């Protein structure tokens, strides 16, 4: 085996409840992650040293040196090996960069699974999840996939049962938003109002809608505490969200820290219609359809990654 390719999904947050700022600089979160069918592909090839090449959409906006999250993950995994190992990584990007859809985290998860197989380390999923959490709060979910509630910084995951497939349209924006900048604006907006956020709580109504596969109910329960801050930093997102609502979306939300916007719709043909309408409007750079939940990077592991040559 000299090459392993792993497919990794983007995520949208169905509930992102942000608690008060903690002393360690993080926020306590209740974060309902949902993996959707927009995928990056990470290929690992055995090599004498670490390198990464990024191809595909917006590849020029992704670091191709030691800051790349996939390389950081591969190096962290190599530190657990009982012999010197390295890899040449190729990332084929489709997940929007700095789009609030955790593309960098997905690539890190893909690198962990691909290198674990390539180097025949046989590390169990618990160990990969531990390394993932050290790389970033969203990395464990990219391994996990499906729909899951994350607590703590978002990295302690519990699977959420879902009663069906949900259809989405994502309106992609020109240029990204910095996640730390969005959190900082959220804190400032709260401070200016003298608001003391309560500890975040899981939405029972959202869980019931997911369990029942009820897209109408789910659309009404989508909530993102970062949305106000993302819109404050990128005011044009208000018009993007309105455009989806006016065209019949069951729910409209900024994805994570933005600026991608997610629209829940009633089915595949409605998704095609909305994507076409948004693409032809001035409110986004592009619009793509997707469905969820889909499997995470780990689904291909255990000796059966997506592509072995
Ligand atoms: P999140 O939703 O987790 O906050 P995001 O989707 O908004 O993240 P990413 O696409 O993960 O954002 O990228 C955030 C930044 O991380 C980028 O601006 C880029 O500089 C850096 N980065 C490092 N490695 C990668 C990678 N493999 N793919 C994309 N971005 C990466």
Ordered list of secondary-structure elements with their pairings:
Elements: E1 3-21, E2 27-46, E3 51-56, H1 69-78, E4 87-93, H2 103-118, H3 125-135, H4 139-144, E5 147-151, E6 156-159, E7 166-172, H5 179-192, H6 204-212, H7 215-221, E8 223-224, H8 227-233, H9 237-246, E9 251-254, E10 261-265, H10 268-279, E11 286-292, E12 307-308
Parallel strand pairs: 1-8, 3-4
Antiparallel strand pairs: 1-2, 1-12, 2-4, 2-5, 5-6, 7-10, 7-11, 9-10
This protein binds adenosine-5'-triphosphate.
Residues 62-63, 67-70, 91, 97-105, 107, 138, 176, 179, 256-257 line the site of adenosine-5'-triphosphate.
Q: Which properties best describe this structure?
A:
33% helix; 8-stranded mixed beta sheet; binds adenosine-5'-triphosphate; globular; disordered C terminus; single chain; 4-stranded antiparallel beta sheet; 309 residues; alpha+beta
Strand content: 25-35%
The description of the largest β-sheet is:
8 strands, mixed
Please trace the helix and strand order, writing H or E for each element: EEEHEHHHEEEHHHEHHEEHEE
Q: Write out the distinct hetero groups bound to the structure.
A: adenosine-5'-triphosphate
Helicity range of the residues?
25-40%
Q: What average pLDDT do the residues reach?
A: 94
Low-confidence segments, ≥5 residues, pLDDT <50?
302-309
Shape: globular
Radius of gyration: 19 Å
The overall strand count is: 12
Tally of helical segments: 10
Global structural class: alpha+beta
N- to C-terminal distance: 6 Å
Question: What can you see in these coordinates?
Answer:
There is one protein chain. This protein is 33% helix and 28% strand. With 309 residues, the chain is α+β, with helices and mostly antiparallel strands. The strands form two sheets. Strands 1, 2, 3, 4, 5, 6, 8 and 12 form an eight-stranded mixed β-sheet that branches. It has a four-stranded antiparallel β-sheet with strand order 9-10-7-11. The protein is globular, with a radius of gyration of 19 Å.
């Amino acid at each position: 085996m000299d090459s392993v390719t792993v497919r990794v999904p983007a995520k949208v947050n169905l509930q992102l409840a942000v608690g008060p700022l903690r002393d360690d600089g993080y926020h306590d979160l209740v974060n309902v992650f949902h993996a959707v069918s927009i995928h990056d592909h990470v290929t690992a090839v055995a090599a004498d040293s670490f390198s990464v090449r990024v191809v595909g959409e917006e590849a020029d906006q992704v670091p191709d040196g030691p800051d790349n999250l996939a390389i950081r993950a591969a190096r962290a995994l190599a530190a657990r090996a009982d012999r010197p190992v390295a890899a040449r990584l190729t990332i084929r990007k489709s997940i929007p960069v700095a789009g609030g859809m955790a593309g960098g985290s997905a690539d890190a998860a893909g690198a962990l699974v691909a290198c674990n197989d390539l180097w025949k380390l046989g590390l169990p999923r618990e160990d990969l999840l531990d390394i993932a959490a050290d790389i970033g709060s969203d990395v464990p979910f990219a391994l996990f996939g499906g729909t899951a509630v994350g607590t703590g910084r978002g990295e302690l995951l519990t699977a959420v049962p879902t009663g069906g497939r949900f259809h989405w349209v994502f309106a992609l924006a020109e240029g990204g938003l910095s996640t730390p900048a969005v959190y900082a604006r959220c804190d400032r907006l709260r401070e200016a109002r003298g608001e003391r956020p309560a500890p975040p709580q899981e939405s029972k109504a959202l869980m019931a809608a997911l369990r029942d596969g009820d897209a109408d109910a789910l659309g009404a329960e989508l909530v993102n505490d970062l949305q106000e801050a993302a819109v404050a930093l990128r005011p044009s997102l208000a018009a993007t969200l309105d455009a989806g609502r006016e065209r019949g979306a069951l729910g409209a939300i900024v994805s994570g820290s933005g600026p991608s916007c997610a629209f829940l719709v009633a089915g595949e043909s409605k998704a095609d219609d909305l994507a076409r309408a948004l693409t032809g409007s001035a409110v986004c750079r592009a619009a793509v359809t997707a469905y969820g939940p889909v499997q995470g990077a780990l689904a291909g592991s255990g000796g059966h990654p997506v592509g072995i040559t």
